[in-house]
Amino acid sequence: MGANQSFYTVIQTSLDEKKLSLFELSKLSNIPEGSLRRVVERGAGSSATAGRHAAPYVRGILLKIAPHLGLDGNDLWTFYQSEHETHVSGPRDALPINRYALKIEKRWPWIAGAAIAGLIVLYILVNGARLLGTPTLAVEYPPDDSIVVADPHIVIRGTLADGDAVFINTEPVELRDDGSWSAEYTVEPGLTTFDIKATRFLGKEAHVTRQVIYEKSATTTGR
User: Fold this and answer.
1) What's the CA gap between 97 and 223, in Å, rounded?
2) Which single residue of 87, 128, 135, 205 could bond 200 by disulfide (Cβ 3.0 to 4.6 Å)?
3) Considering 61, 83, 105, which residue would you say is the last residue of a domain?
């Protein structure tokens, strides 16, 4: 910015060098063309617009257009101040809004919340039979509530329908794709109780209790 150049000359020279019109600069900076013209007219010495806009208003425009003109925004603002008087801003001063700029619609959080809630309700309705209710737990061995065995090695086995998991004495048991399950145990002489539990997501639980009495001389009652 030469000493003999005016603010208007600097702007116009930069526009010419960049091969830009005010309309094109308006598009690039997202500032209405009319607002740009008023700032440039002030540089040309127009007294009609000299006191209309506060310093932050003009400074904001200059900082936004400077990069597109290959100029330093702060230097351009300082140069502008050296030629013009600016008044202190008030609560009503603000940068102009370009009505041609694309506007981003607000997304209300409650819309997303309602959509999520709707999907949850739909999922429960479609999968209610699987998620709710009581699982069907069948214990194939031991076949009775209480049995006597002569072999300490036993295999507790059974099937599960409409359930998600099986536990024996709180320990999880592997559930196969066909719903069958089994677990091996070695019992001590005397009475051993097995609490077999099946669970269902969002549903109830099913419980079956089996007692195994191990007697070394006994004849196994079932297997």
Assistant:
1) 85
2) 135
3) 83
